[in-house]
Amino acid sequence: MKAFADLLERLAFTPGRNAKLALLERYFRDTPDPDRGYALAALTGGLETGQAKPALLRALVGERVDPELFAMSYHYVGDLAETIALIWPERGTGRDIPLTEIVVALSDAGKTDVPGLMTRWLDELGPSERFALIKLVTGALRVGISTRLALTGLARIGQVPIEDIEELWSGFEPPFAPLFTWLEGGPRPEVTARAPFRPVMLSTPVTQEDLSALDPAAYAAEWKWDGIRIQAVSEGGTAKLYTRTGEDISGSFPDIVERMCFDGALDGELLIKRDTSVAPFSDLQKRLGRKAPTKAILSSHPAAVRIYDVMTWAGEDMRPLPWSERRLRLEQALADLDEPRFDVSERLEFTDWDGLAALRADPPAAVIEGVMLKRLDSAYTAGRPRGPWFKWKRDPMIVDAVILYAQRGHGKRSGFYSDFTFGLWDGDTLVPVGKAYSGFTDEELNRLDRFVRANTIDRFGPVRSLKATLVVEVAFEGLNRSTRHKSGVAMRFPRISRIRWDKPAGEADRLTALTDILDGMGA
Amino acid sequence: MQSDSFTQLLLPRPEGLYCPAGDFHIDPVRPVARALITHGHADHARAGHDTVLASRQTLDIMAIRYGAEFARVTQAAEGRMDLGGVEVSFHPAGHVIGSCQVALRQGGVTAVVSGDYSRVDNPACAPFEPVPCDLFVTEATFALPVFHHPPPQDEIARLLASVRAFPERAHLIGAYALGKAQRVIMLLRQAGYDAPIYIHGALQRLCEYHIEQGVPLGDLRPATMYKAEAKTLREAVVIAPPSAFSSPWVQRFSDPVIGFASGWMQIRGRVRQRGVEMPLVISDHVDWPDLTRTLRELNPAEFWITHGRDDALMRWAELEQRRARPLHLVGYEDDAE
Question: Is A17 helix (H, G, I), strand (E, B) or coil?
Fold first, then answer.
């Protein structure tokens, strides 16, 4: 538990991706089985949790600590698990309880055993491990890393590509012993689970200039939908819905899983669809992460899948076939299925790149984020090979905004002000609308850093409030309405595309530049 | 014994604690005629007093900070002294080099003003000496039961594990210039880390002073190398005052691990707020168990709380049926720890 708690703490405070990967790699390499397997499950949301509720923990600590002192402490610390971990009067026995012991004991425990187990562990562990324990049992681990990052860290301990791990890992149960044996040089394990995940084929970005070197007749084009890429697998009576990293999200989408009456593995985009119209991504977000969706949300936010490709069908592996052949099989299969919640992604007719550019410039729905290009002769290959599949995203939206706050960066940007909050005019005040920390060169970063130091009007911890003089062009991929932001809008993937050293702040855009776009989208 | 019976000996005033019988202040936050100073931290040892009485080391530190002429008259505390009919003596507080508690005695009543104090071993200063008293004046910087500072050796072990796991990333540890910086260096030495330790210029004079006073710090080097040289460092530990992390000085290190040695690092919110990657819970104040243990051990008729979390300590006093009084003294910085 010590090593696991230490890993969680360092992951929580380490901002850089590479540093996080190094921590994960070291943990998976140095920690024995089965602890590391249970840790992998915990990091990827695959452990059963919720055995102890916050109310139980409050009751336990209430037996040890004066309620008034507890209330003052909780008010100061601001997090229940952390307060209990720190205030628990025992200092720990120094014995390190293996993570496995805790996971196994909890899964064997009846409801009445949990308070006794928790009390014993809280007495025996130190504060940092108590924190990890409480977060683990209350199901609120939130370590701030994605499943893919955890698997990438895992891949580093062996000579195995991440795609192979993605294909296999969901086929095993924690603590994934065969997986670790394989990573450390053992035999590749056979997946025995039903309806396993298969690694996904991904595309690379392309620009109009790149396209001129390619033959339009060799490619098929489809819309690129702004949902989430999924894999729907139904085999031998088991149906599962996976994300493109192999995360099982069947539980969140029963309305899809119950309609998967076929035998095969399909690759597509999960969307929210009302009649024939596809809702914005923000509607899909309301369904993501809900482990047990209510009837109300199932009917107000009905899910659908737009199928791009067929990987297996009726026991046959279609992946080696060329795209054009797979496409025919897919159309036939979906026609037989006759299920309105599954449809085939439309194939766009075009003869040259200018023709496709015209389609891309004027898509029939706001939730389309560009076009996909797939070589007609391309087999379905795992990973991100360059060439067979391209994504040609629509041009980003752009506003001119004023930099309002700057925050120091981390890692390679330590000591540089590199994280910027920018705002737009609303009347004669500037309203913050987003944050950006990329899009500039190292040279520009140096100049921005000097600008921040010379134009600071106030400081709050690591944040500086700046004189509103510098205009930047902000590029972004999409917009949502937001009740959490004062401006009422939230941008997707904002970054600084140009620094307008020349432009006076008064000429920056108004907030209506964004709200007009939202009104136009009908969002 | 009532609060009233102490008022000849000690009174809270806007400029700090005042002894009417002896006509002097202890750690005043504004210039006064006669000041007794417990230790050299800038919020306790301020410039501008006419006469200063303090430990020899505290006087030295004030001279380093404010110049040799920082007061018209200075006197080094020694033995039992008589100040206007009040018997005054200084006793180790275990906080930083030269830190002392001040004991006042008159008419059979003893009051002890502890200043800032710690019960954890610190090679730079003598350990806290419990002085039996009727009135004990305490700080309450970490007076919440969530503050259980771990053994500092464990924190240094975590730091060294990280230094070895990420040898190419310099570990930059924020530590206040007087006391904490040298404490971190000594703990590293005790743990067997004998490589050169790089220090920011703001720490140099006080580190030298520790060495002069017989506190061994090992091989210290200035952290003013060029970027190219900084890149070649392996397993490097750099100590700097926390304010240095917002100055361009830090830009010479590529991809450093930023740490901070402070009792506040026990609270994750504080760690995040400061953008710290390697929190080190190393404090030179008493934590909750040591604070409450000290109060039980001394068992004074009454205790006063100068600054910090007095609400929780007042609640504890109520539960323990002890007489206590919050003074709400202004001007002492909780954050500089």
Answer: helix
pLDDT digits (tens, 9 = 90+) for A417-439: 999 999 999 999 999 999 999 89
Whether B208 shows a pLDDT value over 60: the answer reads yes
| Tokens found for residue B278 | 């390697």
Residues of chain B with Cβ-Cβ distance to A451 below 8 Å are: none
Distance from CA of B312 to the nearest CA of A (A): 6
Same domain membership, residue A401 and residue A376:
no
In this complex, is the C-beta atom of A91 within 8 Å of any C-beta atom belonging to chain B? Answer: yes
Question: For residue B3, is pLDDT > 60?
Answer: no
Lowest mean pLDDT among A25-34, A158-167, B188-197, B250-259: A158-167
In chain B, what residues touch A26 (CB-CB under 8 Å)?
165
- Residues in chain A within 8 Å Cβ distance of B315: 66, 68-69, 72
Q: Are residues A15 and A130 in the same domain?
A: yes
Q: Which secondary structure element, helix H or strand E, spans residue A321, and what is its range?
A: none
Chain B CB contacts of A408 under 8 Å are 245-246, 275
Nearest CA-CA distance, residue B251 and chain A, Å: 5
Q: Do A78 and B269 touch (CB under 8 A)?
A: yes
Q: What is the average pLDDT value for chain B, to the nearest integer?
A: 94
Inside any domain, residue A185:
no
| E strand or H helix that includes residue B121 | none
Contact at CB, A449 and B248, closer than 8 angstroms:
yes
Residues B235 and B310 in one domain: no
Query: Measured between alpha carbons, how far is A311 from A318 in angstroms, rounded to an integer?
Result: 5
CATH code of the domain containing A282: 3.30.470.30
Given B245, B279, B316, which is nearest A415 (Cβ)?
Answer: B245
Residue B199 lies in a domain: yes
Instruction: Among B144, B249, B254, select the one facing A76 at the smallest CB separation.
Output: B144
Tokens representing residue A135 in the block: 């977060």
Question: Any chain B CB within 8 A of the CB of A416?
Answer: yes
Token reading at B145: 């039961």
Report pLDDT digits (tens) over B125-161.
999 999 999 999 999 999 999 999 999 999 999 999 9
- Residue-wise DSSP of A36-58: HHHHHHHHTT-S---SS-HHHHH
Domain that holds residue A421: 397-521
Give the pair of three-digit tokens for residue B37: 């100073």
pTM of the model: 0.84
> Cβ-count burial of B317 within 10 angstroms (0-12 exposed, 13-18 middle, 19+ buried)?
buried
Closest CA to B104 of B89, B85, B84: B89
Decide if B148 and A410 are in contact by the 8 Å CB cutoff: no
Q: Hey, what are A208's tokens?
A: 């109009």
**Helices A147-155, A17-30: inter-axial angle, 10-degree rounding:** 60
Q: Is the dihedral of CA A483, A487, A491, A495 positive or negative?
A: negative
